[in-house]
Design goal:
Structural class: alpha+beta
Strand order of the largest sheet: 1-2-3-4-5
Number of domains: 1
Distance between the termini: 10 Å
Largest sheet: 5 strands, mixed
Order of helices and strands: HHEEEHEE
Radius of gyration: 14 Å
Helix content: 25-40%
Strand content: 25-35%
């Protein structure tokens, strides 16, 4: 996939996140945003998977159930959802780890516990 295609896809995903936030507002549990964003992405015709198992290789042995990606869109964009006061370094490390383990190029860390959704959008790129 070309950079412009990733940009178009992430713009569509961000549009969905903004719509969910516009309707629900801040202050709910992450699980509420997860279900509504999953619905919104599917409504827009995007292929999306929830709670995608991301195995970890340790000493040449796969360790399944080590990590779960919140949402994976079109098999190429990792979404990590949060509903927290502030994004911390561990949240950033989490999405970067998922991207590295799965060799995904783009990830969005979306924090819904913000006044304006644009404040909660963090985009990460792995080797473009």
């Amino acid at each position: 996939m070309e950079k412009s295609e990733y940009d178009e896809l992430t713009s569509a995903i961000i549009g969905c996140a903004i719509e969910v936030h516009r309707i629900l507002g801040p202050g709910l549990l992450e699980s509420a945003y997860h279900e509504c964003l999953l619905f919104e992405l599917k409504l827009r015709g995007l292929r999306v998977y929830s709670q995608v198992e991301q195995p970890l290789m340790y000493k040449n042995q796969p360790h399944l159930r080590a990590y779960f990606i919140d949402l994976l869109v079109e098999d190429c964009v990792v979404l990590e959802l949060k509903s927290v006061e502030q994004i911390s370094d561990v949240h950033v490390s989490q999405i970067l780890t998922y991207m590295k383990l799965g060799d995904y190029r783009v990830g969005l860390l979306l924090n819904f516990n913000v006044k304006m959704m644009k404040q909660g959008i963090h985009r990460y790129v792995n080797h473009f």
